[in-house]
Design brief:
The protein is of the alpha/beta class. The chain has 2 domains: 256 residues, Aldolase class I (TIM Barrel, Alpha-Beta Barrel), CATH 3.20.20; 67 residues, Antifreeze-like/N-acetylneuraminic acid synthase C-terminal domain (Type Iii Antifreeze Protein Isoform Hplc 12). 35% of the residues lie in helices and 16% in strands. It has an 8-stranded parallel β-sheet. β7, α10 and β8 form a beta-alpha-beta unit. The longest helix has 17 residues. The protein starts with a strand and ends in a 21-residue tail after the last helix.
C-alpha cells in the first residue's frame, strides 16, 4: 500500500501573525506530516465588503467584523509566503497553500507550487477551475457542500483543460465547522471513487481524529485536517482544529493503520504468531492412567494445552487404537504410542 499523504491544514490559524505561522510549521514538522498548508488570497478578490460570515465564523470569532474585514486581517503577503517556504524547507516539511482567487493561483504557480488544492467553495467556479487546470499538473479537489453532478462538472473541466485523471484526487468533505458525526457520511468517499474512478481522500472538520483514521482504512490516499496552537484562540477555524499533541497522535495512528491494512489479504499465520500455535492450541492427552494394551475409548482422552502433540481434529483416529506401553493421566499422546 502506498503511503497516505497527510496535509496539516494551518489555513488561517496563524491569525495574521508570521510568528504563529512559524510555530504551526514547527508543530507540523514535529508531527511528521507531509505538507503544512496555508491559504493564499486577497480579501477584495474573493468577497464583497458586505458579505455575511458563516454562522460558525460568528460563533468562533465573537466580533462584529464582516467576512471581508475578517479575511483582510488573515491575508499573507508575498514576502510572508517566501519566508514560510524557506522555513518549511529548514524544518523538513513541504509547504502548500490553497489559492482562492485567480491572481493567487498565478502567484502560487510563479513561486513553484506544483500541487493545487481546490477548496470546496470553488467547486462551482468555472474560471477558477479552468485556471487551476492550466497552471497545475496535480490537483486535489475538496467536495464539501457538493452533489455528484457538481463534482462531475468540476472534474470534466479539470480534464478538459489538461489535468490527467491519475493526477487528480477528490476529497470527500463536509463544510461545517465542526462537522457533526451524523453528517460525516464517510461512505460517500467510496461512492466518489466508484462513480469517477479516481484517487480519493478525506478533508475532515470533525472534532477529534477518529474519522480520518477510519477514512485511511477505507482507502483514502490523502488526509487533510486543520490544526492549531490552541483551540481557544480567536479565529474562525480554531475550534474545529487539532491541538499539537492530537495532530501527532493522528499521524501516528494513521501510520499504524497503513501497516495493519498492508498485508496481501491471504489468511495464514503471520511470522510473529507462529511461536504461539503450540502454546494456545491443544493436543490429545490422556484423561486417566491406562495400562499397556488398553484400547482407547472416547472417555480416555481429553484436549489440553500445549498443542504440540496430536491435534484434537484427529480425535476419531485415536479411538480404538491400542497402547504399546502403560501411560499416566494427562500424558500427551503421539502416534508412536500405539501398536
Amino acid at each position: 500500500m502506498s503511503k497516505t499523504i497527510i496535509i496539516a491544514e494551518a489555513g488561517v490559524n496563524h491569525n495574521g501573525d508570521i510568528k504563529i505561522a512559524e510555530r504551526l510549521i514547527d508543530i507540523a514538522s514535529d508531527a511528521k506530516v507531509d505538507y503544512v498548508k496555508f491559504q493564499t488570497f486577497k480579501a477584495n478578490k474573493i468577497v464583497t465588503k458586505h458579505a455575511k460570515r458563516a454562522i460558525y465564523q460568528y460563533e468562533n470569532t465573537n466580533n462584529l467584523d464582516t467576512q471581508y474585514e475578517m479575511l483582510k486581517k488573515l491575508e499573507l503577503d508575498k514576502d510572508s509566503h517566501h519566508h514560510l517556504i524557506k522555513y518549511c524547507n529548514e524544518k523538513g516539511v513541504k509547504f502548500l497553500s490553497t489559492g482562492f482567487d485567480l491572481d493567487s493561483l498565478e502567484f502560487l504557480h510563479e513561486i513553484g507550487i506544483k500541487l493545487a488544492k481546490i477548496p470546496s467553495g470553488e467547486i462551482t467556479n468555472y474560471p477558477y477551475l479552468k485556471k487551476v487546470a492550466q497552471l497545475f499538473s496535480k490537483v486535489v479537489l475538496s467536495t464539501g457542500m457538493s452533489n455528484m453532478e457538481e463534482i462531475k462538472n468540476a472534474l470534466d473541466i479539470l480534464l478538459k483543460f489538461g489535468v490527467k485523471k491519475e493526477n487528480i484526487t477528490i476529497l470527500h468533505c463536509n463544510t461545517e465547522y465542526p462537522t457533526p458525526m451524523k453528517d460525516v457520511n464517510l461512505k460517500a468517499m467510496l461512492h466518489i471513487q466508484k462513480e469517477f474512478n479516481v484517487n480519493i481522500g478525506y478533508s475532515d472538520h470533525t472534532l477529534g481524529y477518529e474519522v480520518p483514521i477510519a477514512a485511511v482504512s477505507l482507502g483514502a490516499k490523502i488526509i487533510e485536517k486543520h490544526f492549531t496552537l490552541d483551540r481557544n484562540l480567536p479565529g474562525p477555524d480554531h475550534k474545529a482544529s487539532l491541538e499539537p499533541k492530537e495532530l501527532k497522535m493522528m499521524v501516528k495512528y494513521i501510520r499504524n493503520i497503513e501497516k495493519a491494512i498492508s498485508g496481501n489479504g491471504l489468511k495464514k499465520p503471520s511470522t510473529s504468531e507462529l511461536k504461539n500455535i503450540a502454546i494456545a492450541r491443544k493436543s490429545i492427552h490422556l484423561n486417566k492412567s491406562l495400562s499397556k494394551g488398553h484400547i482407547i475409548s472416547e472417555d480416555d482422552i481429553i484436549a489440553l494445552r500445549p498443542g504440540d502433540g496430536i491435534s484434537p481434529m484427529q480425535w476419531n483416529t485415536i479411538i480404538g487404537k491400542k497402547l504399546k506401553e502403560e501411560k499416566k493421566k494427562f500424558d500427551k499422546l503421539f502416534y508412536s504410542d500405539f501398536i
